[in-house]
Design brief:
Number of helices: 7
Radius of gyration: 24 Å
Largest sheet: none
Structural class: mainly alpha
Length: about 170
C-alpha cells in the first residue's frame, strides 16, 4: 500500500514538473514568434519605400487632396502610399488588440506619427467605409484611439526611459 502511495506521489510530481516545463517551452516559442513579428515591423519602417509612403501621407497628402475622397480613388502612387502606411498600422493594431504585443511598445515606438497619420487618413478611410459599407483599417483606428489616451511620453516615464541631452554646444 505504501509503495502505491509513493508511486502515485512520484507520478503526480513528475507530471506537474513536466507540465511546468512544457508551459515554459510554449511560452518561449510564443515569445520568439512575437519577437520575429516585432522585428519585421521595425525593419518595415526602415525600408525606403515605407519612408517615402509615410512622408507622403504626413506632409503631402492633405495638400494634394484638400477634399478627402475614398482612399481607393486616389491616383497612384498616392493610393499605394496610403495603403502601405494604413495597413502597416492596421497590422500593428491587430497585434495590440489581440494581446500579442503590449500596446506600450507600439505607442512608445510609433505614437506621434501613428496618431498624426490617423488624423490625416481618417477622412479618406471613412469615405471608403461609407462608399462600400465595410470597415477597412478598423484596428488602425483602435490603435490611434489608444495612442490618444496614452501619450508616448507617458509610456517613456512608465518604463523609466532616461534622457541624456547633448553637452552644450560651444559658440564661437
Amino acid at each position: 500500500m505504501l509503495v502505491n502511495v509513493v508511486s502515485l506521489t512520484v507520478s503526480i510530481l513528475a507530471l506537474a514538473i513536466s507540465g511546468f516545463f512544457a508551459f515554459r517551452q510554449l511560452h518561449s516559442a510564443q515569445s520568439a514568434n512575437v519577437l520575429a513579428m516585432i522585428l519585421n515591423g521595425f525593419s518595415e519602417t526602415r525600408d525606403p519605400a515605407y519612408s517615402e509612403a509615410i512622408e507622403y501621407v504626413l506632409y503631402h497628402l492633405p495638400a494634394d487632396y484638400p477634399q478627402p475622397i475614398s482612399y481607393l480613388h486616389l491616383a497612384e502612387p498616392h493610393k499605394s502610399h496610403v495603403r502601405r502606411v494604413g495597413f502597416f498600422y492596421d497590422d500593428l493594431g491587430k497585434l495590440v488588440a489581440h494581446g500579442v504585443v503590449d500596446e506600450k511598445l507600439i505607442i512608445g515606438a510609433y505614437g506621434r506619427s501613428l496618431l498624426r497619420a490617423w488624423t490625416i487618413l481618417a477622412p479618406f478611410i471613412y469615405f471608403e467605409r461609407q462608399e462600400h459599407q465595410r470597415m477597412p483599417m478598423r484596428y488602425f483606428e483602435d490603435l490611434a484611439y489608444r495612442v490618444s489616451r496614452t501619450s508616448p511620453e507617458t509610456v517613456y516615464a512608465h518604463i523609466g526611459l532616461g534622457l541624456l541631452p547633448p553637452p552644450a554646444i560651444p559658440t564661437s
